[in-house]
Each structure stands twice: as C-alpha cells, then as structure tokens.
C-alpha cells in the first residue's frame, strides 16, 4: 500500500482551477520531489496532504487524499491530530522566539507532556536526528534566533521530528540557505528517509536529482510526468519534462 495517495484531486481557489485531476501514489520511506515552474501548483498539492489548504478561504478540494489508505478529507478525522503525523518544514526557517530546547520541546508540551527526563531525551534525540546536536548541546538555553539560518532550519526539522510524524513535507527547505547549509539539509533528508516518508518541493533541479527517489513534474496545475528520478532527468517520456529539466523553460 502507498503511504500517500492522491486520486483525481482537483483544487479551486475561487474561480482559479489550481490542481487538475492529480493522481499519484507515494511509497513509504522514500523521498519524492515535486518540480515545475513557478505557479504550477507544487505547494498547493503538498499542502493537500496536511489539509493546510483548509486554512485558505475560497479553497475547494475534490477527489481523494489517502494516508495509510485512509481518506483524510472524507473520514471524520481530527485535523489537529492528523497534522501531528504529518510534519511540515517551510522555505524560511521559522523558529519560535524561545530557547533552542523549548523550540524542540514545544510540540510535546502542547500535547501535555511535562516529564523532564522524557523531554530531555526527546530534545536530544530529535536534535541528533536533525544533525544539530553537536553544534548546540552546550547552548540549549540560548535563543533559537541567535542560530544561523541553516542551523535554524535544522532546528525546525528537529522540532518537527520531536512529535514523531511519519511523513515530512518540505516546501523548498533549502532555498533560503547557503551552499554548505543546503548540503547539510540534503544529507539530512537522505538520512531521514529510513524512518520517514519525505516529500520535497524544490526549484533546484540538481537538488531534486541528488535527494529524491522519485520526481513528479507539474505544469499549469497538471501532473505531466511522475517516475523514478533517474528517468525524469535522463530519459523523460514527455517533451515538456525534457524541456524543463534541461532548462529550456521555467
Ligand atoms: N491562497 C491562494 N489564493 C488564490 N490563489 C492561490 C493561492 N495560493 C496559490 N494560488 C494560485 O494557485 C496556483 C498554484 O500556486 P502554488 O503556490 O501552488 O504554485 P507553486 O508551483 O508552488 O509555485 P512556486 O514555485 O512559485 O512556489 C498559482 O496560480 C497561484 O497564484
């Protein structure tokens, strides 16, 4: 069974038909990249998986989005609980104006967990998984805002991991970062894939080629081609994909 599945998904923002009949399946413990020119619907589609589009007025979603075989739009699910299983990392690192420790512990605290030993262990484990522990272990009380952009983004990933999601959605997670921080995030994505299902929106073709197992190419709200990443970049079936990945448009 696919971890994530979309069946004939159509999404409208008012009159604007932003996603047109998208169907695709995503396997567990894989990295899937969404690529395509600006405005083609990548972020909109990504947000369908954690129902973040619910927060947008005028947005209407049709079709089915299944997680572990369950339709998250039709079944009466608890959206807040659901979002806990689906972590999200945004383009700009968005740590809270709190200490490094409290940023990571935040999700646990709002779930009512206050047991100090458990919090300490989870904060350490999450920071280790996010490859940040060695850099911050002596400064856990320091403000998260004092970290570099790349460290802040890894902190946001640690914050996401602390509540043990099974899926991590990443919307251009490295586009605001320098090349060294970007390389760290890419390495991290590679390491996390053993335990999580990762979907990443990226404008960076090399990044998609480096980090993902499968790539989906979107254009004007349609899914044009979806295949193993090596096929998309070296032997795409559609001309539009070929033109995009070789930089002829977009
Ligand atoms: N909140 C919104 N209200 C109305 N239209 C929207 C909204 N968000 C996105 N759109 C429109 O939906 C279409 C798809 O946008 P989306 O942000 O998903 O594209 P994208 O491929 O992620 O683009 P980018 O690469 O520039 O981030 C665009 O035409 C956009 O203008």
UniProtKB/TrEMBL annotation:
It is found in: Cell inner membrane. One of its GO terms (biological process) is phosphate ion transmembrane transport. SUPFAM superfamilies: P-loop containing nucleoside triphosphate hydrolases. One of its GO terms (molecular function) is ATP hydrolysis activity. GO terms for cellular component: plasma membrane. InterPro entries: AAA+_ATPase, ABC_transporter-like_ATP-bd, ABC_transporter-like_CS, P-loop_NTPase, PstB-like. Pfam families: ABC_tran. Keywords: ATP-binding, Cell membrane, Membrane, Nucleotide-binding, Phosphate transport, Translocase, Transport. It comes from the Bacteria. It is a peripheral membrane protein. The keyword Hydrolase does not apply. Residues 4-245 form the ABC transporter domain. Part of the ABC transporter complex PstSACB involved in phosphate import. Responsible for energy coupling to the transport system. This is Phosphate ABC transporter ATP-binding protein PstB. It comes from Solitalea agri.
């Amino acid at each position: 069974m696919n971890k994530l599945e979309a069946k004939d998904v159509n999404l409208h923002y008012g009159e604007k038909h932003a996603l047109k009949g998208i169907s695709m399946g995503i396997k567990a413990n894989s990295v899937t990249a969404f690529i395509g020119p600006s405005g083609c619907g990548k972020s909109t589609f990504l947000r369908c998986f954690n129902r973040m589009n619910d927060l947008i007025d005028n947005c209407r979603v049709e079709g089915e989005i299944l997680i572990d075989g369950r339709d998250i739009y039709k079944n009466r699910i608890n959206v807040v609980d659901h979002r806990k299983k689906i972590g999200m990392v945004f383009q700009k690192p968005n740590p809270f104006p709190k200490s490094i420790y409290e940023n990571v512990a935040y999700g646990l605290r709002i779930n009512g967990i206050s047991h100090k030993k458990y919090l300490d262990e989870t904060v350490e484990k999450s920071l280790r998984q996010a490859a940040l522990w060695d850099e911050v272990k002596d400064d856990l009380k320091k403000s998260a805002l004092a970290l570099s952009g790349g460290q802040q983004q890894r902190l946001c990933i640690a914050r996401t991991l602390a509540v043990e999601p099974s899926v991590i959605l990443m919307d251009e997670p490295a586009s605001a970062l320098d090349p060294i921080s970007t390389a760290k995030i890419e390495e991290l994505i590679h390491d996390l894939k053993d335990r999580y299902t990762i979907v990443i929106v990226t404008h960076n073709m090399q990044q998609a080629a480096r980090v993902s197992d499968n790539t989906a190419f979107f254009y004007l709200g349609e899914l044009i081609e979806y295949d193993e990443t090596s096929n998309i970049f070296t032997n795409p079936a559609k001309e539009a994909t070929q033109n995009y990945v070789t930089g002829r448009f977009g």
